[in-house]
Design a protein that fits this description.
By secondary structure, the chain is of the alpha/beta class. The protein has three domains: about 100 residues, Nucleotidyltransferase, domain 5 (2-Layer Sandwich), CATH 3.30.420.40; about 120 residues; about 80 residues, no CATH class. The protein has 14 helices and seven strands. It has a five-stranded mixed beta sheet with strand order 3-2-1-4-5. The protein has a two-stranded antiparallel sheet with strand order 6-7. The longest helix is centred in the last third of the chain and has 35 residues.
């Protein structure tokens, strides 16, 4: 972006349309409404180029801006500003005024640009985030299965550490498909078959038809989600090892960080060299405390939570894994 901004364009973006306002340093204003489709985005690009805008700016409020950003970034600078910071400049709330205020802030170079990842990395991050959501859904369904078994007093947890492991799934599938106790026990691993007496006591109970039907639905969904999660993991690791092999190796050398932890950190942060220090990175992730100072009094509040919530989540998981890992200096 040039040192002096003579003309700027501010965008207020919505799902089906966006308002664009062009302001010049001489005070001239132009404003148009565009449909948020291919024709509208092309019209915007031609307009800002023909008007010789020095910069285009908008708020980072949703993914609605992505196709607009990708269309414009090859032709002129595009600033994606933090919505929370820009709301500090209060104004009457309408779409047209929002667009004009953003243009005014860009004209006066008062918007601090947010980091925008390259398209291929955004796709990589979307795989990681979708996997996380699917795992959460799978956990919800597993909890539902536990809730189905509890009223039936089918206490499989007394025998197996994980009732959704290979042996647990074999037992639950056998129950829902009507297999005999001997057939179910025969399908188990040798170590679990040693608990045959306890397993027989559990299997001697008959669960209701309703519980069996609901349990089978849960097992089908868990199996389907398992397959989709594995499919996403293949895409995730292909990209992570293909584009960030060195970073993966460094991260996985830290106790408590495995493949998924390393891939998630890389997906949420991308280029670590964008930050001049660890403190800057911690601030960007929102894991530093709010600071308030008045006169001689200085207060530290809760963490700011301004960055990626997925990054903070994986860091907490890593910290807990590290605390449980034996014989490491970070414990």
């Amino acid at each position: 972006m040039s040192e002096i901004v003579n003309k700027s364009c501010g965008l207020d973006i919505h799902k089906h349309f966006f308002i664009a306002t062009i302001l010049s340093i001489s005070g001239e204003k132009q404003q148009q409404r565009f449909a948020r489709d291919d024709d509208g985005i092309l019209a915007l690009k031609n307009w800002v180029i023909s008007e010789k805008c020095d910069v285009v700016a908008c708020e980072s409020t949703s993914d609605f801006l992505v196709p607009i950003y990708d269309s414009l970034i090859k032709h002129l600078p595009v600033i994606i500003g933090n919505a929370r910071d820009m709301k500090a400049f209060t104004h009457k709330k309408t779409d047209k005024i929002d667009s004009e205020v953003i243009a005014q802030l860009a004209l006066n170079k008062m918007i601090q640009a947010s980091r925008v990842f390259p398209k291929d990395h955004r796709e990589f991050r979307s795989y990681v985030r979708l996997r996380h959501k699917l795992v959460q859904k799978r956990t919800d369904i597993k909890n539902e299965a536990h809730a189905i078994l509890a009223p039936e007093m089918f206490n499989l947890n007394d025998v197996l550490a994980d009732i959704f492991g290979k042996n647990g799934i074999s037992i639950l599938s056998g129950i829902t498909s009507g297999k005999s106790t001997d057939q179910i026990i025969e399908s188990l691993s040798p170590n679990v078959r040693k608990k045959g007496i306890l397993i027989r006591e559990i299997l001697d109970r008959e669960i209701s038809q309703s519980a069996a039907v609901r349990l089978q639905v849960c097992l089908n969904l868990i199996k389907h989600l398992d397959d989709e999660v594995k499919s996403l993991e293949r895409e995730i690791f292909n990209y992570a090892y293909g584009e960030h092999k060195r970073e993966m190796e460094i991260l996985m050398s830290v106790p408590g960080i495995g493949e998924l932890g390393a891939a998630t950190i890389i997906a949420e942060i991308d280029n670590f060299k964008d930050f001049s220090s660890g403190d800057k990175l911690a601030s960007w992730l929102g894991v530093v405390p709010n600071v308030y100072q008045s006169a001689d009094k200085f207060y530290n509040g809760r963490i700011t939570k301004r960055g990626s919530k997925e990054a903070r989540w994986i860091l907490i998981q890593i910290a807990q894994a590290t605390a449980r890992k034996k014989n490491n200096k970070l414990k």
